Amino acid sequence: VSRSSHLEIVALGGLGEFGMNLMLYRHGDDCIVVDAGIMFPRQEHLGVEVIVPEMSFLESCGTLHGVILTHGHEDHIGAVPYLLARHDVPVFSTEYTRELVRARLSQHDGVRDPRLKLLPPDGQTRTFGPFAVETLPAAHSIPRAKMLALHTPAGVVVHTADFKLDPVPAAGAGTDLGRLAQLGRDGVLALMSDSTNADRPGFTGSEASVRPGIEELVAACPNRVVVTTFASNVQRLQTLARIAAGQRRKIAFVGSSIEFHAEVAQRLGLLELPRGLRVSVERAMQLPRREVLLAVTGSQGEPLSALARISVGKHGEVELDPGDLVIHSARVIPGNENSIGRMIDHLLRRGAEVVTSSPRRRVHVSGHPSQDELRLLLQLVRPRHLVPIHGDYRQLHAHARLGVDAGLDRSNVLLAESGDLIRIHDGGIQITERVHVGQVFIDATLDQVDLDVLRDRRRIAGDGIVVPVVAVDREKGVVNGYPEIVTRGFVPDRDDDGDGVMREAGRVVVAAVAAASPEERADEAVLKARIQTELRRFLRRRTQRQPLIIPVIVEL
Length: 556
Ligand SMILES: [Zn+2]
Ligand SMILES: [Zn+2]
Description:
The chain is 30% helix and 26% strand. It has an 8-stranded mixed β-sheet with strand order 8-7-6-4-3-1-21-22.
């Protein structure tokens, strides 16, 4: 296939799935990658720490000029070490994001001498082959988030990445509406826009809007206040610091990631803490309870996080007393409802008050744009084409509908998913082919986990393990005595105690060995496979269960 000199775009992740954002822009043979993020595992991914996009397409995509990172959230930078392990390309970001990438890379030993470079200042461009990349400031829930205006031979593409239109951000610059409007007047070929909240009506609201809700609670509390939020939400840390200062409380940061982000943000001038406001955790616990505000990691109920340990009285440094107040100032990421719920149960058992965000009392605000903001952006940018990005399919779908409602021609709005190769030219936008995409599972040792391993873990977790121990006499070809079947976590039958089923299972094993030819019996692997197949078939039919079956052969 000869490569066209059209503009082509493909997401290796993040379109029709939450997280794992990685987009490739190609013109002719020249490519740039925007973001390289991970996805967090769900409950069924037993033992999997992170999921990274399958990136084999990058091997043959053409000349890769660089990776551009829009901001430092894990779903945008977490896969950088895996990309750099295979491709020696420069990575461009802001200084803040670069610090976070460095920290990520330091945990991997596969990448030597990464070229971590800085993006140009806002409004200026840097050239990558046929792409001139301009950065624009964006308000988001992490410092120094950027939108990109990609000036390509085919036209200008505005890639919003994650953003919202916060008119009053607590720190840093807000989204640059003026420049967006100017780009719109000059003509924008395509808008690639954040769909995370595309199913939410109204405006998301400013970071400034969470302050009154939290402040009121803090003012009314005669005891310790604990606020949990994402460590990277430096704006929220700034809001908390201002509230603490106004209420004559000291602030302490609890949890290594919150300390890390606070340190980087302070060094880069993104977090202002008046002298004497911040104290150590140890000092905070010595102060009178009404003089303390603790900013704590663990908003998603992660079992090893600071707040999860505090909730069960196992933190070591922080111990809560009845009447202390815990404020959950973060989004509940879908899939984490149970772990957060359990943590709140524990906190309540210890006598703490717990407040979560509600329409009545807002203690958290999202970093992503709601429908009115997306409409406003469409009106400003007036793109010829809209491609919703960053979201599950239903959110992309809602965003596409907004685009049509805002006046875009239906044929100019493209609902694409990861792996769809999109071609844009003056006349239109189409999906021209599918490229290989997928998920790669990584466990705590940072090694890849095979799908087979994951399937086994699921079987064990769901239906347990069955180990038939078979004594075989290779000469005579008979099973010596009766096979012993050891089980763990396997419930054979609801009705009887399972003896009947296991006796029958023993007969199935005997029959499987008896039916094997002398050659099959001589080959342990073949014999095992035979036993496994027969026993699996029997247990599935008899018990509707599929335990992991591990035959053990003892030769006599
Ligand atoms: Zn983000
Ligand atoms: Zn994101």
